[in-house]
Amino acid sequence: MTLYGLLAVAIAFLLDWLFMEPPTRVHPVVWFGKATAAADRGWSAPRETGVLIALGLPAIAAVAVGVLGQLALAVHPLIASILAGVVLFTTTSMRMLLETATEVTELTETNIETARVEIRALAGRDASSLSPGEVRSAVAESLSENLADGLVASLFAFALCAPVSLPLAAAAATWVKAVNTLDSMLGYRSKPVGWASARLDDIVMWIPSRLSAVLIAVGSGGVTVLSEARTWAHEPPSPNSGWPMATLSAVLDVRFEKPGVYALNSRASLPVAADVGEGVQIVRRASLLAYISTGVIAWF
Q: Which pathway does it take part in (predicted)?
C-alpha cells in the first residue's frame, strides 16, 4: 500500500504542475464553498449553529471522500491511489499562487491601479490606496501564508494518515481543506456564525503554519532566520499566519506591513519587485520540499 501512497502524492503534484486548478464547474472546493455560502445567513442562535457548521460540514465532506476511497480500494489499490491523488490535487494549490504572485508583482511596476485590483485574488484587504511597495508586501505575505493554508496543511494531514489507509488520508486532506474554506468564508468578527470555524482553523493550522516556516527557512538555504522570525511571528492578529510571514520577511530582509494592523521586520524597507521574485523562488522550493516529504512519509 505504501507505494500507492507515494503515487498519489506524485499524481497530485503533476496535476498541479500541468493544470493548476480543476475547472470551476467541477471543483469540489467550489461546491463546498456554495454549501458554506448557504449557511452564511442570520441564525437565531448563531454561535450554537456555528459549532454545528464547523463540525458538520467538514465531516460530511470527509466521510463522502472516505467512502469513495474505500469503494475504489475494493476495486484495486491503484484505483484508490489515483482517486487519492486527484483528491489531494483538489485540496492543494501552489502553481496558481506562484504565477498570480509573479503577475501582480510585475503590475506594480507597470500599472499600479490594475495591481491594486488583482491583489484581491491573493489578499483580502482594501488595496485602493496601497503604494506599490505595500502591494508587493501583500503579495509576499500571501505567498508565505498560502504555502501553509493552500498546501502544507492538506499534505500534512495526508502524510499522517497515508501509512494507515489511503481512503483515510484522502478524507483527512479533505477535512482540513474544508475547515480552511469555512474559516476563509465565515471566520470574521462581523459573522457570529463563523466564530467556531475560525477557532477550529486556528487549532488545525497550528502545526502546518510552523512547518511552513521551517520549509521556507530550509528552502532559503538555512534555518538561522527562524530565531529572528520568532520575534515578529506574534505581530499579526492570527496565532498562526505570522510564522511563515515572519520567516519569509527575515529571509528577504524586507518589511511586511498591513497598514494599521502590523509591521514585520519594521527596520527594513518594503519589498521591491526583485525581493518578491526571490520570495516566489523560495516558496517554490519550500513547496517541493513539502511534496517530497509527504511522498517519503506516505511511502514508508
A: Cofactor biosynthesis; adenosylcobalamin biosynthesis
Spatial separation of the C-alpha atoms in residues 21 and 70, rounded to whole Å: 25
In terms of Cα–Cα distance, which of 272, 259, 153 is closest to 203?
A: 153
Structural domain contains residue 225: yes
Cβ atoms 201, 179 nearer than 8 A:
yes
Q: For the CA atoms of the chain, what is the radius of gyration?
A: 19
Q: Is there a domain that residue 46 lies in?
A: no
Residue 241 resides in a domain:
yes
For cell 475547472, name the residue.
Answer: 23
Q: What is the DSSP string of 231-259?
A: HHTTSSSSTTTHHHHHHHHHHHT--EEET
Distance CA(61)–CA(47), nearest Å, equals: 22
Place of cell 459573522: 191
Instruction: Quote the distance between the C-alpha of residue 289 and its chain's center.
Output: 15
pLDDT tens digits, one per residue of 17-61: 999 888 888 899 999 999 999 988 888 888 999 999 999 999 999
Q: What angle do CA 45, 50, 52 make, to 5 degrees?
A: 100
Residue 44: inside a domain: no
Rounded distance between C-alpha atoms, residue 123 and residue 293, angstroms: 28
pLDDT digits (tens, 9 = 90+) for 93-106: 999 999 999 999 99
Please name which of 84, 29, 105 lies closest in space to residue 277, comparing C-alpha atoms: 105
User: In total, how many domains does the chain have?
Assistant: 1
Q: How far is CA 141 from CA 56, 146, 176, 260, 283, in A?
A: 31, 8, 21, 15, 11
How many C-alpha atoms does 54 have within 13 Å on its Cβ side? Answer: 24
Domain range for 92: 2-36+51-299
Chain Cα centroid distance, residue 266: 25
